[in-house]
């Protein structure tokens, strides 16, 4: 009867909840051991100049290969890391790894123009951020102009004065700033116009369903036009098809990123040379 089956449904639901809760607690406990166990690595995904196919830079993305559970999705990892404040350790570790990789590429005369690193809001508003970044890039003698920080549009929930101050402090170091996942949050034109930002990254959810979704086509056009009007460069995330590439080329969108060119790969496997863009 109804009573019985709904009770069963609850039981199954409870078990699922319990399992995901257990997983979370377990991962919270495991995360602080991940670095010393060498379970974290940095993967890189190329950004491509849509006009010529040249490599414009790489985006660094963290990977956690847990000895029992295997790959932990980055979104899950970052959410746990933020909650436990372990994100600060991971962020410092990422920046160091990226600087080491840049040093190695330079030594091997591989030309990697630029690397971007994601900063979540907890990292962005950390009082030690500026000092940490300065210290690490000095230590590895990396020119700050070769680094870019990606900040998601969701920081616009916070006080604009505070964001402004932090961005200026970062810009003063000499690094580039990109707004990530643009179009998904609530940030307004005012933010883009007012903040010292260099690059806008159009979120994959818009690029994904081009050319079927007329609304997303319109939004993508508007974002590119507005960014250009403000003197910003644009990266389109998640390009998977030639049609998507051609549409973005027709808008003079400067850069593209996505599986059409390359998935994120380990530092040793970064594709060099030119990509096919016509
Ligand atoms: P994101 O910064 O927007 O990164 C882009 C995500 O889209 C990456 O997922 C990438 O693998 C995926 N992607 C790129 N091109 C394509 C495509 O053509 N098709 C599809 N289906 N997916 C594509 P990933 O590596 O799972 O990272 C997810 C998010 O986790 C990132 O989104 C970023 O916000 C965060 N994240 C990753 N690494 C770090 C990190 O070191 N620090 C911080 N704070 N956040 C990170
Ligand atoms: Mg990003
Ligand atoms: Mg993104
Ligand atoms: Mg995205």
TrEMBL record:
Domain EAL: 24-278
Keywords, alphabetical: Membrane, Transmembrane, Transmembrane helix
Protein name, entry field: PAS domain S-box-containing protein/diguanylate cyclase (GGDEF)-like protein
Source organism of this protein record: Melghiribacillus thermohalophilus
Full-protein residues shown: 367 to 644 of 644
